[in-house]
## 1
Amino acid sequence: MPNAAAPADATAPADAAAADAAAAAAAAVSIKNLLFRFSNSNQSFALEIGSLTIEKGERVALVGPSGSGKSTLLGLICGVLTPNDGSIWVLGQQLENMSGRQRDRFRADTLGVIFQQLNLLPYLSVLDNVMLALEFSHQRRLSPSQKQEKARYLLECLGLGGAELAAQKASQLSVGQQQRVAAARAFVGTPPLIIADEPTSALDEDRQSEFLDLLFSQQRQTDATLLMVTHNNRLAARFDRVLNLTELCDLNITEGAGA
Amino acid sequence: MIIPRLALRSLRNRRITALLTVLSITLSVVMLLGVEKIRTGAKTSFLNTIAGTDLIVGARAGDVQLLLYSVFRIGDATANISWQTVEDIRARPEVKWVVPISLGDSHRGFRVMGTSPEYFDHYRYRRNQPLEFSSGQRFDDLFEAVIGHKVARELGYQEGSQIVVAHGAGRVSLGADHGDKPFRVSGILKPTGTPVDRTVYLKMQAIEAIHVGWERGSAPRGTDIRSAQQVRQLDLAPKSATALYVGLKSRMMTFSLQRWVNTYSQEAISAILPGVAFAQLWKILGNVELALLAISAMVVVTALLGMVTSVLGSLNERRREMAILRSVGARPAHIFGLLISEAAALVVTGICLGIIVSFSILYFGRSMIEEQMGLALELKLATALEAKLLLAIFVGGMIASIVPAMRAYQLSLSDGLTIRT
């Protein structure tokens, strides 16, 4: 049972538990005895992770077959899903103790997120899409001119310089360009944790590596922690560490009614 | 504020749907305001058909019937009042003035009314406005007539035109007319939006004159025929009247004179207070207008439902948009606010355009409406009631849009950052 603590833990002295908590608070992501259950009429799904730690500044590739719960794990770390049991520390905050509102604020302040594709609001300009990440955060809120400056700088770093391009509707860009705009949005305002869910899967081989170069160079500049889901072993090999979700957790998926 | 800005951008992105939604709200608002304007306009026009007259006296009949024939020239009197009775009423101490009217003849579908010259002094409409002449003056000679605005316009008469009065009230005279005694138009009245516009006025004596020899009810024959010149020599003092408009020295005396008239023993007559009878009549007609208002309210509801439907229909394709917003830290409440803001923008735009359009129609079409329908509409941006109706539309729109907004809220909670399309 995931919520039954190991016997060693049960008899451990109080200061050991405090040391654990201090270590969890110091990490970028720290997960202990996590249980997440999801069920609807035709599917039931449970994700269990005993222990997972990602250090600050680390570049981690998360791999695993489809349906292994990678997106669910990201949702839990981003605070849009809440675990049924266990604890998740992200950048020193214990997410399961926060209200939904606090977690949303926390995400706005500290996380940059990149999706697989179609990351952008089609009705906003490229520049507005990048600046969108600054709108819901208090910590990242800047004056309008500062916002523009930062957004333009990041677009330039990602090879999307030029006023003309910045003013274009997001829907007019190529997929590769859109992903780079999404990367610019994730990094704008220098959030300490970047979460990317298969950001390269819509790109062709050459572009994939190029995109990862860009991500890494931004990551180095900002010292952010990078957690990226990928299916591509060649790309995964370039990360500091590869986490295989199937090795990491006990996963139960039951399909069909009455499961 | 990021949310209203996003709402406007997203609406601009879906501008065709947005425009159609705004258009349907605009049209429904125009219809609601139009019906309301016409309803209140009709009511005030109607209730102000006659003013300054304290009592109307006629042969004993129902209040509404007496009002219908004496003011609207609709239907006929059951009997006439004898001139002796008219004099008795005139002699009462409460009475300031008496204007007799005599109905029964017509001219090409317009009713002919005999009256005394004082009619033009005492008849008032729409808050004590007196009758005015657009050309000419009141009748002076026996064979002169004053005609209402509509009579002149529809029949193309001018001052000096000759007209012939038909016996009876039918549109077609069936050969029984007073063709031997033509009248000269001495004056044309300005439009009033009341039955005055559709009336031909003659002197009381003229009514007597054209009916000389008609005592048996049909056209005179042989020795009974008198020429217009011969008639002038006769005693033409009126022998009866259809009804009387009575003005009193003080309004306080209204009920005492009414009681006196209603108990008058020489003849079966009754007196009505025009205001009271109008209110009774409006109770009957007013329901129709209310039904019209209810129908236009339904149209507004339909337009708002259309808006909700289109927003609900677009939710599925917008789940990706919601996930993106959630990923940059938007709360489900922001998503809710986004959809409510979009609905607010649509409803407010629709209402504003509706006000502008209906005001323009009123501004440019007012004189035509007054001319065509005799409806004097007030040139007002919005009355208190209209403002309340508009507020109700706005609140209704907001309440209706809670449905899709709630749905989006729930979707964004359950979807989280997973993009489902």
## 2
Amino acid sequence: MERHLNYPISDRGIVSVMVQSRENNKISYKAADLSDTLVKIRDLHFSRGSRKIFDGLSMDIPRQGVTAIMGPSGTGKTTLLKLIGGQLTPDEGSIEVDGLDVHQLSTKKLFELRQRMGMLFQSGALLTDLSVFENVAYPLREHTRLNEALIRHLVLLKLNAVGLRGAADMMPSELSGGMSRRVALARAIALDPMMIMYDEPFTGQDPISKGVLVSLISELNNALNVCSIVVSHDVPDTLSISDYVHFISAGKVVESGSPEALTSSNVEWTHQFIHGDADGPVPFHYPADPIMDDLYQRGK
Amino acid sequence: MNLINRFLDRMQKIGAATLHSFRRLGRGSVFLLEVISSCASLFVRPLLVVKQLYSVGVQTLIIIVVAGLFVGMVMALQSYYALVDFGAEDSVGVMVALSLLRELGPVVTALLFAGRAGSALTAEIGLMKATEQLSGMEMMAVNPMQRVVAPRFMAGVISMPLLATIFSAVGVIGAYMVAVELLGLDSGAFWSQPQNKVDLHLDLYNGIIKSVVFGVVATWIAVFEGYDCIPTSEGLGQATTRTVVHSSLAILFLDFVLTALMFTK
């Protein structure tokens, strides 16, 4: 038997929903169950203009644990998150979240589903005319009828979880990039979502901020027992916190598996990506005519 | 052969540009319908409109008052010098009042509004798009049409007739200062002619209807350009410029159409 505890605050300040085992009465983090699928993507096709982004992509994302979606820049990782969130519509194929086909839902139903999703944007996407406190309170004010005292408590707890309770009165323009993302993370978990999507959370962060974000993602995932989808091309940090990884390239999944399995993979593409080789299946040169043709303007 | 190719190339470019314009017009029309349907939500949250009325209306007031004052003063001067030759300088008051109420009040206010508030609306919404604030709201299950666009649109539509009325009133005061205080025109003559000649329905109401139409068009263009802009610094700059240019042209064109409909005998 397991039960959820209501927001005990650890010494790190993380608002934890830990899972208690009745048998031995020990508090422990529940191991991620990767067999239960939350997001099911099937034969996804998506193009921007004439450029094909996804060409029959299929993948499953488990209900628990951290799932990383990795690939080089421009492979459509952010686009995939927007497709999962229903902000973009695929040309073909389907995306199911918690058994609901995202792109068949009415606007009302889609908005109901989004209340159970949290998303951390690359830029933080904080509302610049609202203070840090009001940014975190925003989804609570929009979607709940909680009284002001309770909203205040919840907001301060969420901010405490990301270590920024002391910055509650600051404006977004006064925050560093790392702080903005932490505030955005507090806002993303405001409604206690079932899944949190992280869009390039480590890009442009100094080592300390990056370290804070890495541990926050991992600890929040364990504490809240949610599905975390991390889109990134930062190999060591992302692999260190992931339970499962999908590598995508050229519109398809190249390889999937545990971080350990992928690190020792013999697939040429995976090897190149993990070790950062300049040339390989992903060529150094962008497709072009032979250089002599270009230099002498032959055929132009 | 080369000439034909160049001609075909040019025709293709014209065709593509025309299609692009029609596509944008279509998107803009659908956008307007969405905005209008989103306005219903403002009854639940009227404070959103009040906040925007301040930034769109109140903050535009200073330029409207100053411009109205000088336009009225210049009109009084010009009409006095034109009419005095015919001994008709007593008509300065009515001439200024009618010009302001029928034409200059709504039109100049709308042009100034497009330059001050319209460009600011485009830049604000465009920047929200570029910094993913609009996407962030969507992912928080909050409709940006209802929370961001509709309050600004409604504030623009409400502000414009009020600003145009203030512009006309200040213009008449400016004309009074020049005609009566500076040029020595009789105060009674200045006020009595407008009292007799200005018609409530024909002049005042029509002027207000014009300014409401200009308010809808100028604010629609401003919020659409912001919402539809390419989210880069260059795209935002282009969108802001388009707001001012398109709004100004639309206002002048609509002024002709409305004048023809309202004042043709």
